[in-house]
Amino acid sequence: MATPQDVLPAPAPSKAPPPAPAPEARIVARRRPGQWIAAAVALLLAAMAVSSVIRNRAFQWGVVADWFTARSVLDGLALTLWLTAATLALGFVLGTVLATMRLSTNPVLRTISWVYIWIFRSTPPLVQLLFFFNIGALYPTLGLGIPFGPEFLTVKTVNLIGPTLTAVIGLTLLETAYAAEVIRGGILSVDRGQLEAAAALGLGRWRVLRRIVVPQAMRAIVPTAGNMLIGALKGTSIVSVLAVSDLLYSVQLVYLQSYQVIPMLMVATLWYLVVTTVLSVGQYYVERHFARGATRDGLPPTPLQRARAALIKVVRA
């Protein structure tokens, strides 16, 4: 017969203490001594180069400072900027027409556009400038009329095209060839399926061009166009052979009289560096503008935003 002790519940088993948490594994970056050695060598070489430039008396930094803001130099800089803006603006306007012709289904328009681009991209810019400057020797008169027939209007080319106009014409025709290829590449970068979807929705051609093609094509056009702008700025220096008073020709006039070749060339070099830097900063922000919506994570912070965040972090610390 069972006793009361037999029906009592069994004592609960004692709980074991929980195991101690495992120590977190530390992630240690891989040591790369080769990179640090290469960085140290690069910094050493850069410091040596900067020191040699600053301490070399042949640069005559005093003369550079005196002529950096001289009136003749600033006038040459203004003409250089004007030539750059005029030739690039006209080049992209005409380049848009050529790109449209190149993408046309008309074989005549495609052929004319291809031949134009082939000729102007295949010949040196200096040769083109000299050719247009001496156009009077090849065509003493230019006429408007019926081909192989009578002419209704004729103009003598002697002294018709001066050095500055020659520079504008020559550089514009050259930039037109490059701009046409840049624009054509940007248009071709747009996904064809988006155009088909827009057509299926019944959107008009102008709206498709303005809202779909142009915003996406600009992401491919702007970087190359920025390089073209900087290249056009530096390319204007070749007009000095035509005695056009650009930045380079202005400093050449000074050192031909004073024989201070190195400091005057440094004046031109520093101005080119300043203007190119400003254009590069502008290109960076234009690229950010057209890159909006390209990624889901948003745009990375700008250098100014990073500097502001770092300064706030230092102040709070």
Question: Key terms for this structure?
Answer:
317 residues; mainly alpha; membrane; ABC transporter permease
Protein architecture, described:
There is one protein chain. The chain is mainly alpha-helical and 317 residues long. The protein has one domain (60-291): MetI-like fold, CATH 1.10.3720. Helices cover 69% and strands 3% of the residues. It contains 13 helices and two strands; from the N terminus they run H-H-H-H-H-H-H-E-E-H-H-H-H-H-H. The protein has helices at 4-7, 33-55, 61-68, 71-102, 107-122, 125-133, 135-138, 163-188, 192-200, 205-235, 247-258, 261-290, 303-316; strands spanning 141-145, 151-156. It has a two-stranded antiparallel ribbon with strand order 1-2. A hairpin with a 5-residue loop joins strand 1 (141-145) and strand 2. Helix 6 crosses helix 8 (163-188). The radius of gyration is 33 Å and the shape is flat.
